[in-house]
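ok trying again, last paste got cut off:
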Amino acid sequence: MTGEWLTAWDRSAGARTAAELFRSRFGAEPDGVWSAPGRVNLIGEHTDYNGGLCLPIDLPHRTYVALRRRDDDVLRLVSEREHAMWTGTADQVHPGADLGWAAYAAGVAWALNASSDLAPGVRIAGFDAAVTSCVPYGAGLSSSAALESAVAVALNDVCDLGLGGSDAGRAVLAAACVRAENEIAGAPTGGMDQSSSLRAQPGHALLLDTRDGTVRHVPFDLSAHGLALLVIDTRAEHQLADGQYANRRATCEAAAARLGRATLREIGAGAELEAALAVLSEPGDGEAQTTVKRVRHVVTEIARVEQFVALLDDGRVAEVGPLMDASHVSLRDDYEVSCAELDLAVTVARSSGALGARMTGGGFGGSAIALVEAGSVDRIATEIADAFGEAGFTAPVFLVADASAPADRDTD
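nice, full thing came through this time. structure:
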């Protein structure tokens, strides 16, 4: 059995495809084409909504948006993945509205208009947009944030918001994208995905401190060390708006409140964690024991991010594998967001020679990553695909992740 390989589009070709879709559906020229990447998180899972640290990189796989500003409040959205055009008006976009996929695009305009960071009197009205993408959908690689971020930089340009040229401005755009996903699309995610798509740099991982929104760009060039990051889309579809993600977030927030902390970030690993778990633990109470496991994952995962970054800073890239392995075990056993396909991908990658492997993204399906020697990529992918076939799973899709560029304009 062989898995499918997903190659990123050439950016000029992706931009042409989006522009052609716009012309065919709207009969006019777009003001331009903008694109934003999906992301893969190296380590730091389910820490972003707990005030913690995470370490994503941007993928070369991007979502392209051809967009044209309108002078009225009408919104028209088309996608290569959706047959019908979505048409509405700005006042139809609000929390609780059932907008389908359009929530991720129209919600960004709503959130920017609601932001206190826009200049007085500035308001985004209507627009037409056509969307194409090579970011795999439902793979836990943040296709939703890629769409939001591409729309955000497009609206920034056509409405002269002046936010795209600095990290501070891009942080404002990222915050609007998070509000769109949380309040309009109804997915209670943290801010890692949008921050990565808008604020990362090529050749670097983004160390994001979600407590204060600060970032540090950590050099991440695997090829210089003879390594590669293999991404395995298990094809077990990843969904965030089904209640499981929200349940875990609520558990963590309740635990922090009980411990008298603003977030779980304030709890250190080691003795401080053990003391906190003793407070939360109630023998014989299943719900309390679940809370203990959730808190233990978050606190130890934040510590793993710190250790991972320290190794990268020291140039000891090949030594991060055990931290990836430990992260997966914690996500599987304490946070309980893995699945059979993710576990199989990780197990086979490790037995085939990967230096480390873990699920990535929110879980409940989606993708795994494996740190491998560059010359072993094809062999390890084949062994994973064979194992999926033997298990009766859908054939996986593979890609190799290089730390790539953030959201930006592709055409004039």
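cool. The chain has two domains: 6-220, 223-400. The longest strand covers residues 56-69.
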